[in-house]
Structures are given as C-alpha cells and as structure tokens.
What does this fold into?
Amino acid sequence: RGPPPGRGGLRFAAAGPPVVVTLHNALITGGAVGAVYGALERVVARGATAVLGVSPDLEERMRELGADDVGRALVPAPPHRGAPAARDGVREELAAGDRMVVLTVARLAEQKGLPDLLKAAALLRERPMLFVVAGDGPLDGLLRETISSDDLPVRLLGRRSDVPELLAAADIVAVPSVWEGQPLFVQEALEAGRPIVATAVGGIPEMVGDAALLVPAGDGAALAGALGRFVDEPGLTVRMGAAAAQRALSLPDEDAATDQLSELYARIRPGK
It folds into this structure.
C-alpha cells in the first residue's frame, strides 16, 4: 500500500507489508524520554498503515499527527472467576473491622496518582475507612514514609496474586491514575460489581459510563469527596455496585478483539 491520496510522506508499508501499530500509553512525561516518545509518535502516525489506540485521546493524538486510518483497540476483559467466598477471611487479614475497605490495585509509579490517594486518605482519616493498595514499584519507599509520618489509614500490600479475593473483601474501588487506557483492574472491578471512584482520564470514562463516580486527575480533595459519599449516603454502595455489574456485561471479550483485528487485517491486506 502506498501513501494515501492527497498526503505525501513515506509509509512503512510503501516498500513492504502493511503495518498496524497499537498504542497503549499516553505521553505523560517530559525531558529526553518525552522528546523521544514524541518523535516516535510522529513516526508511527505518518508511517503506519493503521493505528489503534486504547483511548479516545490517543486516537485524537494520532489524527492530529497525520494518521489517516485510526481506530479503537479493544482490550478484552479478563475471564470472570466469580465471587470468591473469601470476604471475611481477607478482611480479617487486613484488620478492617467494621471499616469500609477502599481497594486500589496498581503499580506504585507516578502514572497511578497514588499521592492523591494518600491525600484523600488524610482528608478521610476520621471516617470508618481503610485504604488498601496492592502492587509494587519505585514509589514504594516514598509512599510508606508518607503513610507512617502522617499516620494514614493506608496499607500497602505489595504484589498480590489474589485480586479477585481482594475485590470480594472491598467495599469500594479507587482508581486515582493520572492516565489510563482500558485498565484490566477497572474491568475486574466492574465484573465483581464493586462501586468505583476513578479519575476521568484516558479510556476510563467510556469504559465505566455511568457506573462510576468520576473526579479530575490530580485532585485529592475531589477524590476524598467522592469516596466520602459512600459513608454519608445510605444505599449508594448497593446502587453503584449494581450499576457496575450491569456495565460489565458490555465489556469486550477475546472473541470481539479477535474479530476486530481479523476484519482490519483483511481490509488492509496487500492487493485488496
């Protein structure tokens, strides 16, 4: 396939087979890394036969950089294993008592907005809430220092392999990320029927629809306000949990993702 009509520049596919590129992350950093990533984005936009993005902002970014064939990449939801009968045991392990458990599963890295989660925990320290974070990463030491020095109701669990059990024990799911595409943890939370409070970034709003409370990224106070509603408003947990379970029915599965790619490859194959 040669350059599209009306647009110059060499495509990867002009001298070889068509090339499809899937973008999974947004540019959220500066400096040398940001410059290199930005240059690669431009190369992909101008050179690929087709580009798939995991969120609307990535799609728009590629169009702005000159890509002609842009679509949505489907991220299949993980197989739902059902509701584990482990709620009481996990809550006992967490020493949750009668407190609401607010669960976050994330790599302890800058993208995940965990300092904002700690700000929310500080603002809600007088409420009957326990914040639990599963995951590891480069911010582990800094986060532990803040939790200890500010005496926050937050537990860092490290890497865990029992996310379904943690979801069974949780009352609320918090996703404070600076950016996300179609995070598997949000899909798992929807399938588990857990109320979700998340930042309105990347692909999250389209993924959750009305089945989550959305707040701006980088706003710990807004995050605290949304989480606090579950203590103040009787019935909100049940209503949002039911909405999450209903929304999960619309998540793409492996067959949908396979069909999408098969149709794309058939459309762009040489000689068509």
Notes: The CA atoms of residues 223 and 246 lie 24 Å apart.
